[in-house]
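Lab notebook, bench 4. Continuing the backlog of folding jobs that were queued last week. Each job is logged with the same field layout so the records can be merged later without manual cleanup. Today's entry covers Centrosomal protein of 70 kDa, a 434-residue chain. Filled in by technician R.K.

JOB TYPE: sequence-to-structure
TARGET: Centrosomal protein of 70 kDa
LENGTH: 434
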Amino acid sequence: MVSLVTLNFADRIVIDRQTSQAIRYALKTLLEETERQRKIVRGLIEDNQQLRAELRLERNHASRQEQRANDLDIIVENIKHKIRQLEDESIANASQQHNQVKELQKDKQVRYHQQADKLQEQEETIVRLEKELCRMGLEEEERIATQKKMFRQFCKRAPRTQLDQQYCVISEVNLVDSVFFCQMLKVLSRIDSIIRSPGRAPLVMHMQRKEPPRNSAKDNDQECGFEHLPLTIELWADQLLALKNLHRSLKKLFLQLMPWHTVAVQDDKECIRVEDLQLMVDEMSEEVESEEKKSHVPSQQTLYAIVSHFQKLFDVNSLNGVYPRMNEVYTKLGEMTNAMRNLRDLLELDTAAPPGVLVNTVGKLCSLFRENVTWQVEQLLGTQDIQSIIYKLEEHDDFFPAFQALTENLLHILGVRNLTDIVPAVQQLIWKAQ
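JOB STATUS: finished
OUTPUT FIELD FOLLOWS
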């Protein structure tokens, strides 16, 4: 039973001893409980601040990761743009090379036609020279016939003794021999000039090396300078025969390399030109080059196998899904690489550290953090049992509203604003009561 006596003259309150001890014990218990609750609140506030700091760090880390992801997207777009640019350049280079090949083929055809025209002109010149040679031969025969006729007429007019007749016959024979010799000399000189032309000088040197050595000066006086002509003509005949054999071999090789082409059957008596052989060799070389280029290009079956492998690897059903899945894998790989690089930097590891070392280090840090948090909770709540911790928190939830209401009433009754002012105000009341 609490009895209060109010004195009007001094505004004092008189409390008996039992009530005073009860109030003292209540205030002491209240202060202790307040101090303990203050420690709990302070610990909770610190934990809340720590959690907010960690949350802030996580948000910053997430923003950095998002920024890096955006940067990676930009890099991927730039790489795609460069790939498209390289593809366009390769297509342009291929078209340019194709155009250059066409121009070279056209140039080759033009040169071939020019050479053919030149050869035809040379053949026409040879035919014209042969006609002129025939005409000159006919004129020479006519002239000789005229000379013979005039000589016969002169012989008819002159006295005809047996000696004169024999002399006339011998003169006529010598004249015919001299004319034939002049003709043969012209022909041999023409052949010798053709052989000794600048384009055939190596052939003449080859024939001179094959000639036997000359021993006496008498043989030099008897030679006329055309002794190499039979050997040269014999060599030409051998070369023409070898040219026919070469043409036959090239024709077989041409049919083996390009069986879809038809080669006209050429008569053995027909003249074989070097230009035809050169044309066959050029066609075969072009065909071999085109086959080599085709061999470097992968076949349709190989490309189909590669595409099927990528579809199985990326678990897609169509070809259109391969590229998005490749981009997704590339993006995820870039994110993982950047995350591991950042973790290495934060943990101060070597850049060449394997992922296993990184995972072990992060696991150790997480273990240390969990042990530290558990120790802090145990120190704060004064127990190590999980069930006791739950009970403490439930008691705190039940006690804190009543304690808050009591504290607010004390602040209102004592006329103070802070919790720290409650104890001095109560002590002053006790001193006054005593």
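OBSERVATION: The mean pLDDT is 73.
SIGNED: R.K.
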